[in-house]
Amino acid sequence: MAKYWLLLLLLLLAFLLPAAHAKSCHPDDLCALRGFAGNLGGGGALLRAAWSGASCCRWEGVGCDSSNGRVTVLRLPRYGLAGPIPGASLAGLVQLEELFLGSNSFVGSLPKELFSLAGLRKLSLESNELTGKLSSRLGKLKNLTLLNLSVNRFFGRLPDVFGDLTSLDHLAMYSNGLSGSLPPSLSSLSSLCELNLRNNSLSGLISHVNFSGMPLLASVDFSANNLSGSLPVSLVDCSALKSLTLANNQLVGTIPSWIGELDNLRCLDISNNSLVGEVPKGLSCLEGLTAVDNSAGMAFTNMPLYVKHNRRALQQQANVISGNNNTVRSGGGNVLSGDNNTVISGNNNTLSGTNNTVVFGSNNVLTGSNHVVSGSNNVVSDTGHVVNGSSNTVSGRNNMVTGNNNTVSGSNHVVTGNNKVVTGG
């Protein structure tokens, strides 16, 4: 019986010893973590107090490999940590795989020692006060699956290194000061699920990115930049796409019919661009579309809102425009239907609907009601218009006409000027 209990005790110890070993940490990592905490301001004092003893694998925010006791995870979000990121100390964590330092008060640029952590898989530094240009050394972190540098003060061009980061599935750098064109190497991210570069100063053609090789892409947000060109047809190959947000850019052209082929699309925001034309009928099949918020033109839950608030910057071309709240500047020969449209310095336009405005235009034809027209040689019919200029032809009722050589028919008009021809009551 004694031998039985002795054998049982030995088996129990064999089971417990590896667990105890897992809670000890490598002396090099212990030294590196103490150096890291020792160089921090703000909440660094509290962190140094919490990190006591030599069993660093038991410390808050620290995770270790159970087999060798090496530190693989450092998660310290929202700890009030301040100062530059202690790069030299981080470099001592040679087997670090995950680094989460978001929502602190770190300043300065990314330390060069950070790029020596070749095993790093997840890097999240969002919501700090980091600055500087992003180094091409980012390409050395070839095992990254997540990179989040959002809500900082980085500026300059995005380095064209994403051909070396093909394991990325989440890339977020929104709300910085990044500028220049989109790097073509973004097209290499075949594992990408989320791409968020909103609220920067990126410019150039959006088609610099070829989305055809991104079958897993579920979310794209390029809003609030200065991107130009038409909606990239390569997006049609992103069958998993659920959210497409391209608002507040300088995109042109029509709303393409292939958007209706994105069966999983739940959110579409292409407002505040220079898109023209009618909404493709195929979009009515996307029954899953939901609102981002309740702002008109910001989220699209019914067809008229898909074109609402798209800016019209049309010059020297004959365009056909339908919808509401459209603006035409310095265009000629345009045909507009809908309500609340505005034509500025345009000629030979045809407008129908209500509450349309023509400013400094000539030879325009307007039908409907409550239009405001300035210019010459305009033909205005129906009711409630305000017409200024000369040689205009006005018919209907309750119109106010000023200028010279106007021909007015109908009733209840208020007419001022010279050389009028007035018929009616």
Structure, described:
There is one protein chain. 12% of the residues lie in helices and 33% in strands. It has 425 residues and is mainly β. Among the domains are: 134-311, Ribonuclease Inhibitor (Leucine-rich repeat, LRR (right-handed beta-alpha superhelix), Alpha-Beta Horseshoe), CATH 3.80.10; 320-424, no CATH class. The chain has a ten-stranded mixed sheet, with no helix packed on it. The chain starts with a helix and ends with a strand.
At a glance:
The protein has five helices and 35 strands. The protein is mainly beta and 425 residues long.
Distance between the termini: 123 Å
Helix content: 10-25%
Number of DSSP strand runs: 35
- The CATH C-level name of the domain at 134-311 is Alpha Beta
What structural class do you assign from the helix and strand content?
mainly beta
Domain Leucine-rich repeat-containing N-terminal plant-type: 27-65
Pfam family, one: LbR_Ice_bind
Signal peptide: 1-22
Family: Belongs to the polygalacturonase-inhibiting protein family.
